[in-house]
Inverse folding.
């Protein structure tokens, strides 16, 4: 473990993160808000820490390659540091005086969870609000990957960081170099974000709100600028645009790249995409019917609410146009199950991801098939490629660790006195990077009332979920630290 | 530069590693998914699973954008077909193929522009044989690399305890030697050191020295190395490499004894070779070796396919009295061990292949380049341009990247072994040794004048 290299890279990364606070600062100056000072101070603290780390740990060796263990450490530490620095504006402005709350809000932003502890969001100044949304946008495509894309210092080690931050069961590199791949993904991300921003402007949003909501949609984050979330706008058009872009953000970005370069066939021949569409449609239909017969008279309204909420939960965004905690039991159950699905692999969505669920289902089928034909040679296939048993094993390992972490956190939260529904949905909604859950933490309320210790447990869940389990949990086993 | 490497074996992987670290875009194709996985884990390259001779796979690898195709699979046919597709379908400018079959020569007409159109064919066994012949020509050296069309040589050898140079500073050594002497680098306990005048030589050091060809023997003698011409050589293992080597040695009038286990192979060797003695038996048998007077051998060269057995039998032969021993080893990981355990030289076909490919790729700004034995450093030969930073100034005033040393200068047929006051003139041919990590910087210095240097 070469800690020097690690702190060198983290230093460069923090410096960059500090500079990104310029954007909220500009909004704050534009609106002449009183959060200007807090933002400047946060910027200076973050960047200065970065510079100090960078220069004091500059390795004498020119070669700063990382091995895979160091890659995991850099990524996890990078995210924790980002969350700590990201909490500075909330703390210094006084929006959230306690560090636990500020850290929770910040990590909820970076991990694109969208769970909030702030009551009365609309009273916050623009700079802080913008920072809150921007953390989601940065975290959506991966902050470390962004640094790979634009900071040349992360030359050789980039590969390890990329794998640790954007784990995917099936490794797809768009271009030979990881920096190039990262840059390509970010460009695709920016292009789609721009389109959504323009469409939202047409819907009558002002540019500040349009930008904030674009950030939180594309990252499948779910922070809004008001307590009422998207319901505040009362506009079917805005609901529609956001529904569409949440759905888009939940698709593998490699496919978007294919579409942008004119490869239309790859989209529909992709089995994960078809599975994702199938799940979305089925869930929308069930919830619509359930709402239609139990709650709302008008069919179009049913479809509007159902589509928005299903896609918001499935892609792990967490926006709300209605308090779905008050919906009938079947709808709530469907939404709770969808929380385990998440978007496609390689999207900005969190949770288990459609690809893993699809492969696990296929694996189950193959096992049944083998019972019928004991001599048959049959493997799990994805499209036209065989999924090797080691890949399957890694997916099962992920699945078990995901559920295991959920169960442990659930028990801990229950031990802190939360009711089962609140505790369970809070854990599922944070580890899946969704945001709102049921019970005390439903879409109409916030996480502010739960105990401090529970906030830390949930913060941990968010990080574990965002970095897809392995990257964080590997640091917790003693074997990792043995020389 | 976009490069497609076909075959993710040891050679393919090393080449991909070196080239991608120098900023090229690499795509590696292999049929074996497990090998590709190993490549993706370690290197920043894109991998494609499939056969390198399939047009579909090559198209997927964006062959039309590639500037170089390096085909180094185990199969000659696949390599040839891949290069053929590259030249006919997409007009890739550079095609390199590894071709093992001994009957196919680099100069063969079928590889030229009008036929297969392969720019560089490499036969790893032949490269290794050439290396061994070069070592034997200057017995006492562990490695001899040619520069400037053979006028300057980079000689590598290990320092014995009895060597008079042990404990001396390099500056003292120069006075003792009474001529131009430049030690380009030292490998000491696995580490590569680029020495300065105050560095001292220690026993068991492994030195790389630049020397004019006519002075090689004098130099080796100075370091206490015995330089008598080779007369008797034992070869262990009777494969194609041994056959090729035996043929060349026979032509030089060296007496060769080949030990081979298989009856049929022995018969074949006996048929192809006239003067050599073919022995049927086990090379690790002391009796056989003693019976054949191993104590009189100048060289014992272990060439079987089993590298561990090669090392052990070489050590055994050395213990029984063979003056020097050489091993055929493919694993780069073992290379560091060689000087330590008392083996005098290594034939490494894979490394020879890598060296040859790099040599070819670096052409242009750089005339040639050769990796030194531990792979971390390279010897680079180039022509000093008028516009380049290094021309027209004393060497001591030039800021080179760390770990770089100018080894020799060739000016109008005169070899200059440089010192701090030496000035490089435009059009000089310069040979330097540098750590691989500094190669991109070196390339920069060589071409354009950078004001902030």
């Amino acid at each position: 473990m070469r800690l020097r290299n690690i702190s060198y890279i983290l230093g460069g990364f923090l410096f960059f993160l500090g500079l990104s606070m310029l954007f909220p600062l500009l909004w704050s100056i534009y609106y002449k808000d009183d959060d200007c000072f807090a933002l400047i101070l946060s910027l200076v603290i973050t960047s200065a820490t970065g510079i100090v780390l960078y220069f004091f740990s500059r390795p004498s060796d020119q070669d700063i390659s990382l091995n895979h263990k160091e890659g995991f450490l850099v990524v996890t530490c990078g995210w924790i540091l980002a969350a700590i620095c990201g909490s500075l504006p909330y703390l210094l402005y006084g929006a959230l005086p306690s560090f636990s709350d500020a850290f929770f809000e910040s990590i909820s932003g970076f991990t694109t969870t969208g769970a909030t502890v702030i009551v009365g969001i609309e009273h916050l100044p623009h700079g802080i609000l913008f920072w809150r949304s921007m953390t989601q946008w940065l975290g959506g495509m991966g902050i470390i990957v962004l640094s790979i894309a634009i900071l040349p210092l992360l030359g050789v080690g980039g590969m390890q960081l990329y794998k640790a931050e954007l784990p995917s069961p099936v490794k797809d590199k768009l271009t030979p170099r990881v920096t190039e791949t990262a840059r390509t993904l970010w460009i695709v991300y920016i292009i789609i974000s721009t389109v959504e921003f323009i469409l939202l402007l047409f819907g009558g949003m002002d540019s500040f709100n349009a930008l904030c909501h674009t950030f939180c949609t594309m990252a499948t984050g779910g922070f809004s600028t008001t307590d009422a979330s998207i319901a505040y706008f009362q506009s079917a058009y805005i609901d529609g645009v956001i529904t569409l872009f949440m759905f888009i953000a939940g698709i593998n970005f490699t496919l978007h790249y294919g579409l942008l370069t004119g490869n239309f066939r790859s989209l529909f021949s992709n089995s994960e995409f078809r599975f994702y569409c199938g799940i979305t449609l089925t869930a929308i239909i069930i919830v619509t019917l359930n709402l239609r017969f139990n709650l709302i008279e008008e069919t179009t309204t049913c479809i509007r609410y159902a589509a928005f909420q299903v896609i918001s939960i499935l892609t792990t965004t967490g926006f709300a146009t209605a308090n779905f905690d008050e919906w009938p039991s079947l709808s709530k159950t469907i939404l709770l199950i969808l929380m385990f699905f998440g978007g496609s692999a390689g999207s900005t969505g969190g949770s288990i991801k459609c690809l893993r669920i699809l492969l696990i289902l296929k694996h189950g089928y193959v096992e049944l098939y083998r019972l019928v034909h004991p001599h048959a040679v049959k493997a799990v296939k994805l499209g036209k490629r065989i999924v090797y048993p080691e890949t399957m094993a890694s997916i099962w390992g992920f699945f078990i660790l995901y559920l295991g972490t959920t169960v442990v956190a659930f028990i801990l939260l229950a031990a802190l006195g939360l009711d089962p529904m609140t505790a369970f949905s809070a854990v599922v909604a944070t580890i899946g990077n969704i945001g709102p859950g049921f019970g005390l933490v439903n879409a109409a309320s916030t996480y502010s009332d739960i105990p401090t210790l529970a906030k830390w447990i949930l913060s941990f869940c968010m990080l574990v979920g965002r970095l897809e389990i392995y990257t964080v949990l590997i640091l917790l086993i003693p074997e990792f630290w043995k020389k | 530069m976009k490069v497609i490497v076909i075959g993710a074996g040891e050679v393919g992987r090393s080449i991909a590693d070196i080239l991608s670290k120098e900023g090229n875009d690499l795509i590696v194709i292999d049929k074996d998914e497990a090998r590709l996985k190993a490549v993706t884990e370690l290197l920043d390259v894109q991998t494609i699973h499939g056969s390198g001779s399939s047009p579909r796979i090559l198209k997927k690898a964006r062959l039309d954008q590639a500037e170089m195709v390096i085909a180094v699979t185990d199969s000659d046919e696949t390599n040839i077909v891949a290069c053929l597709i590259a030249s006919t379908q997409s007009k890739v400018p550079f095609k390199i193929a590894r071709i093992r079959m001994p009957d196919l020569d680099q100069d063969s007409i079928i590889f030229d522009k009008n036929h297969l159109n392969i720019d560089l064919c490499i036969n790893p066994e032949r490269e290794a044989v050439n290396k061994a012949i070069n070592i034997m020509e200057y017995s006492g050296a562990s490695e001899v690399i040619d520069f400037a069309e053979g006028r300057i040589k980079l000689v590598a050898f290990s320092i014995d305890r009895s060597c008079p140079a042990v404990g001396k500073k390099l500056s003292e050594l120069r006075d003792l030697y009474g001529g131009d002497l430049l030690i380009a680098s030292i490998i000491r306990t696995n580490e590569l050191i680029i020495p300065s005048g105050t560095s001292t030589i220690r026993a068991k050091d492994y030195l790389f020295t630049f020397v004019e060809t006519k002075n090689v023997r004098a130099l080796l003698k100075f370091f206490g190395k015995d330089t008598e011409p080779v007369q008797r050589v034992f070869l262990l293992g009777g494969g194609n490499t041994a056959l090729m080597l035996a043929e060349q040695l026979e032509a030089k009038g060296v007496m060769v004894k080949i030990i081979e286990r298989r009856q049929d192979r022995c018969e074949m060797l006996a048929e192809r070779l006239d003067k050599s003695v073919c022995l049927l038996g086990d090379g690790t048998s002391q009796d056989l070796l003693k019976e054949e007077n191993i104590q009189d051998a100048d060289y014992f060269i272990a060439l079987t396919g089993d590298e561990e057995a090669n090392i052990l039998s070489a050590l055994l032969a050395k213990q029984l009295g063979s003056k020097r021993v050489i091993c055929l080893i493919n694993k780069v990981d073992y290379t560091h061990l060689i000087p330590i355990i008392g083996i005098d030289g290594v034939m490494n076909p894979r490394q020879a292949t890598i060296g040859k490919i790099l040599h070819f790729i670096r052409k242009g700004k750089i005339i040639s380049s050769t990796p030194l034995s531990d792979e971390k450093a390279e010897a680079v030969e180039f022509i000093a341009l008028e516009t380049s930073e290094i021309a027209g100034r004393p060497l001591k005033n030039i800021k080179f990247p760390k770990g770089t040393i100018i080894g020799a200068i060739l000016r109008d047929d005169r070899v200059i072994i440089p010192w701090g006051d030496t000035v490089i003139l435009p059009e000089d041919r310069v040979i330097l040794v540098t750590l691989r990590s500094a190669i991109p910087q070196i390339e920069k210095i060589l071409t354009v004048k950078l004001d902030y240097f």
Notes: The longest strand of chain B covers residues 404-411. Chain B is about 30% helix and 25% strand.
